[in-house]
Amino acid sequence: MASGNSFYITTPIFYVNDAPHIGHAYTEVAADVLARWHRQAGDDTWSLTGTDEHGEKILRTATANGTTPKEWADKLVTEAWKPLLATINIKNDDFIRTTDERHETNVQLFLQRLFDAGFVYSGEYEALYCVGCEEFKPQSEIVDGTGPFEGQKVCAIHSKPLELLQEKNYFFRMSDFTDRLLALYEERPEFIQPESARNEVIQFVKQGLSDLSISRSSFDWGVKVPWDDSHVVYVWFDALLNYVTAVGYGQDEEEFARRWPATHIVGKDILRFHAVIWPAMLLAAGLEVPKQVFGHGWLLVGGEKMSKSKLTGIAPTEITDTFGSDAFRYYFMRAIAFGQDGSFSWEDLSARYQSELANGFGNLASRVIAMVTRYFDGVVPAEAERTDAELVIHAEVSAASDLADASMEKLAVHDAIAAIWRIVDELNGYITDQEPWALSKDEANRERLGTVLYTALEGLRALAVLLSPVLPEATARLWTALGAVGALGALEDQPLREAGTWGQLPAGTQVSALEALFPRIEATVN
Ligand SMILES: [Zn+2]
Predict the structure, then answer these.
(1) Among this protein's residues, is 305 annotated catalytic?
(2) Distance CA 153, CA 128 (A)
(3) For residue 66, how far is its CA from the centre of ligand 1 (angstroms)?
(4) Residues 307, 22: Cα–Cα separation, whole Å
(5) Cα of 290 to ligand 1 centre, how many Å?
(6) Which of 73, 138, 144, 410 is deepest in the core (most CB within 10 A)?
(7) Known catalytic residue at 224
(8) Residue 289 phi/psi, 5° resolution?
(9) Pairing mode, strands 44-52 and 6-10
(10) How far apart are CA 369 and CA 363, in angstroms?
């Protein structure tokens, strides 16, 4: 059912040393909702995630734990990162590890091509390096240490002393690309989004780019530089290439042409790597730059950013064990404008779960199915004469689904969900107004009762389709209860862009009992 529109979306690859927290899960869910949306809309969709496994920091941790870096990475991938994807119900198409042979071989190929084209040279390098960031720090991020680090230079992000590294390095001529990058940002304003992120990158590049050190020789946990195996490739240069090595770069040109370029979803703290270094690398290699680099905001917990360095992290299972994965997905996508910083709180999560999911959507579904069971023996009634009240619902369902699709296209996931939720609110208001329980008391109103319940069922049918990328479990259960599997086929096969077309659920379909979609949560959390 692919429409031919390619949609390739990536998350950043997880640094295996980190412990999964809700910040990682947030990025994953956003990319997954967008991927599921496009997949169900019939676009030729591919979603990629994975792990970043090279670099000095991994080597040091593995050594400290008495193991090899590869064994360390294997353990974390198996015990931490793949389980995270299961916890929040991610349906990724691929999972790449930077230790995969398909990756390492083609990192070497890419680098060799840049070397052959004259974009790489060797030189002496002396600079302050932060192992926490795995980056030579620019002046703007070097500050004077305090407390135990008084008198030393420390990383502005990690507040830990920087190491003065003095090495023979290979350099990428990134400075050659200053003007071409500025022209790119100018010609394609959507290339970096949101606008605040775009402006920040433009300001940075306008100061002029330096060449980039892309090899290290003081340790060996990395991809070997193809013409000099005493060096390994700089971990960021290696990691960024996952986005192309995962889709056939260097080994399957047909697949590569089908997928690339990608939409990259990244945290704004790593925006510069994706919006400056990465397109410069691609331009040097004569490859297309990404379709878009979208920098989402930070999650704030108690006013503080959750990050790699300040692991005030909340494990996603703390939320999903109580509320379930659907509620996790819904909450973060709905409560935070995608692209901006947002605050997480247990109170807000709990309140939205109760009012929006349980009372708003879940209760609507339960009531409608129960009334069809009670008044029509569970058989979907026919729609008779429509009144203005029904026409308002038809128009709302159609408008909301168009608006949701347009919002998803702009990666405004929160707007898309808000648009879909108008259907929930309209249907709840419609049922209150039409009072089917009152209609049921007089046999003379039988046709009218049928029309009212049919309208509610059709609304639920549209909601199941539109919300399936966000709430895959609840909507699958609703779909089954509606009897829609037999009548219309699997939920994931319903063309999403036609969800707003009225009258798809056939009269005569048998509905079945529906357990509460979002059960009451007894224990108070936290
Ligand atoms: Zn740092």
Answers:
(1) yes
(2) 9
(3) 25
(4) 10
(5) 27
(6) 73
(7) no
(8) -75, 165
(9) parallel
(10) 10
Give CA–CA dist 488/183, Å, rounded.
49
DSSP characters for 76-91?
Answer: HIIIIIHHHHHHTT--
The highest-confidence range among 16-20, 109-113, 267-271, by mean pLDDT, is 109-113
What is the reported pTM? 0.93
* pLDDT at residue 306 tops 80: no
To the nearest whole number, what is the mean pLDDT of the chain?
Answer: 94
Distance 390 CA to ligand 1 centre (A): 59
- Looking at residue 465, what is its pLDDT? 98
Query: CA 58: distance to chain centroid?
Result: 25
Instruction: Give Cα separations from 48 to 161, 265, 273, 497, 519 (angstroms).
Output: 35, 11, 18, 23, 33
**Per-residue pLDDT tens digits for 38-90:** 999 999 999 999 999 999 889 999 999 999 999 999 999 999 999 999 999 99
The closest of 53, 70, 67, 56 to 18, measured between CA atoms, is 53
SS3 434: helix
The strands making up 215-216's β-sheet, listed across from edge to edge, are 215-216, 228-233, 224-225
Give the mean pLDDT of 162-167: 86
pLDDT for res 138: 85
Give the integer Cα–Cα distance in Å for 514 and 453.
Answer: 16
Known catalytic membership, residue 158: yes
Q: CB-based contacts of 154: which residues, under 8 Å, 6+ apart? A: 142, 143, 144, 145, 160, 161, 162
Ligand 1 geometric centre to CA of 156 (Å): 7
Residues sharing a CB contact under 8 Å with residue 294, sequence separation 6 or more, in sequence order: 193, 194, 197, 263, 264, 265, 266, 339, 411
Question: Residue 84: how many CB atoms within 10 A of its CB?
Answer: 20
* Separation between Cα atoms, residue 22 and residue 87, nearest integer Å: 11
243 close to 277: Cβ distance less than 8 angstroms: no
Q: Is 21 a catalytic residue?
A: yes
Is residue 525 pLDDT above 80, yes or no?
Answer: no
Strands 224-225 and 153-155: what pairing? unpaired
Question: Is 274 among the catalytic positions?
Answer: no
Catalytic residue among 38, 103, 130, 414: 130
Question: Tens digit of pLDDT for each residue in 115-131?
Answer: 999 999 999 878 899 98
To the query of whether residue 268 is one of the catalytic residues in this protein, the response is no
Q: Which residues contact 333 (CB under 8 A, 6 or more apart)?
A: 29, 30, 33, 413, 414, 417, 470
Among 42, 89, 88, 38, which Cα is nearest to 416's? Answer: 38
Please state whether the peptide bond connecting residue 194 to the residue before it is cis, i.e. omega within 30 degrees of 0.
yes
Distance in angstroms (rounded) separating the CA atoms of residues 8 and 14: 18
